[in-house]
Amino acid sequence: MTPDAIALFATVILLLPMGYFLLAAPAFLLVRLDIQPVAQLLRVMFNGYFLTVAIAGAIGTIAVAAEGRIVLAIGTGLIAAFAASSRRWFLRRIDAQLNTGQAGDADAARRMRRLHWGGMLSNAIQVVAIVASIPYIAVAPT
Questions:
Q1: Is residue 68 a part of any domain in this protein?
Q2: pTM of the predicted model, to two decimals?
Q3: Which candidate, 20, 74, 105, 115, has a CA 20 to 30 Å from the CA of 65?
Q4: In terms of DSSP H, where are the helices of the chain?
Q5: Is residue 142 part of a domain?
């Protein structure tokens, strides 16, 4: 495989979980998050998304670094690191809202909704950045 193909393959693999989340997350806007099973399902989706992006990013980083595309490897590595740290941050906050919601806090669902919007915005920004960089990735290294 040529270095361009490896870089594009790593980019597409990274875009797959992001695209899934981009399509699946808005469905939670149609339901109330004060329903415990729905809120737990949202937590599971965030957990799976961040974990998948972190793993795909780490594998992509190794692949493009092995081909000598160091700048792309750094960018992919930053996305993987952001996903890993975001996972920990989001899950802690979602768990806190789940616990306060069970305790009867009426604002827990509102705070959960804000986390949901923040996660969707974060994902959308990353998708736009990656898609915008594809023309630069497809160019053969010099």
A1: yes
A2: 0.85
A3: 20
A4: 3-24, 36-66, 70-102, 108-137
A5: no
Asked whether residue 53 carries a pLDDT value surpassing 70, the answer given is yes
Residue 65 lies in a domain: yes
Is 141 a domain residue? no
Segments forming the whole domain that contains residue 111: 3-136
Phi and psi for 131 in degrees, rounded to 5? -65, -40
Reduce the DSSP state of residue 31 to 3 states and report it: coil
Per-residue pLDDT of 30-47, as tens digits, reads 998 888 899 899 999 999
> What does the pLDDT read at residue 139?
67
φ, ψ of residue 35 in degrees (nearest 5): -85, 115
Calculate mean pLDDT across residues 73-96: 92
Please give the tally of structural domains in the chain: 1
For 119, other C-beta atoms within 10 Å of its C-beta total 21
